[in-house]
Amino acid sequence: MQHRRHRCQKMEENQTLRKFFYLMLWWHGLGMCFFGRKWNSLDMGSAAVVVSMHLLCLFAPFTFNWAALGIAFGLYVMTGLLGITLSFHRNLSHRSFKLPKWLEYFCAYCGVQALQGNPIDWVSTHRYHHQFCDSDKDPHSPLEGFWFSHMSWMFDTNTITERTGKPNNVGDLEKQGFYQFVRDTYIIHPVVLAALLYAMGGLPYIVWGMGVRIVWVYHITWLVNSACHVWGKQAWNTGDLSRNNWWVALLAFGEGWHNNHHAFEYSARHGLEWWQLDMTWYVVRFFQAIGFATDVKLPTETHKQRLALADS
Question: Which residues form the Fatty acid desaturase domain (predicted)?
Fold first, then answer.
């Protein structure tokens, strides 16, 4: 009995040490992402914006009201679903469907208010990600650790420029005056939104409509780059680390079906199974039904059979 008790105690100590080791590794990785390299002025500016939004969230418990929460949720849908997932990602990056220019520009403008960069730069980075996925040229390669792929790559422009060079893969956007204008005046637009929110509801609308909402959409978007290359299942032989992650899919309006997406980059639909919830696809399908979305691309059964894993 005493021997068994000693063994149990030893196992508990080993588990505690293992947890401590993983925690230290986690913190070390986080620290190296931010302190293990050189910073330039662009990196510091980007980090200042991101840190400011996180600090703003500290006031959330003291400024809560239901109207502010409603504003945050509405902007979450507008900037996250219409802006990032539907516009920046599926429409502009992959040309999975076409929209009338007025609607394309409206959705793209919603994405601008997510404070994740202008459409030209966002799309360029994402196209490079697919071109060099999970390699040493991937702008946010998971091979360099969770925190790098999650967020710190955004504050390391020297490394990104060394990998990809200057953006030369977004000529289709650069020739359009709207996207040039947004790129040149980018920072003005969220400032105008913040002023409007303050006029409507004071500090609570700023804290919830800007801080909480922006940080929420930040991390949901970043989880697609990090978590969806670490946790989940693979249904397709994509030759990379992409995974289908159901809980990211719920938060990110269907973007978590990431292995599906990497298998069929052009597809407007990421949740290929009936049970794979994909809110962005439902909106695209609605636009298609009323005649707004055209040339909607989907994988054929032949394409699926070609990439299907034997045990999927």
Answer: 65-285
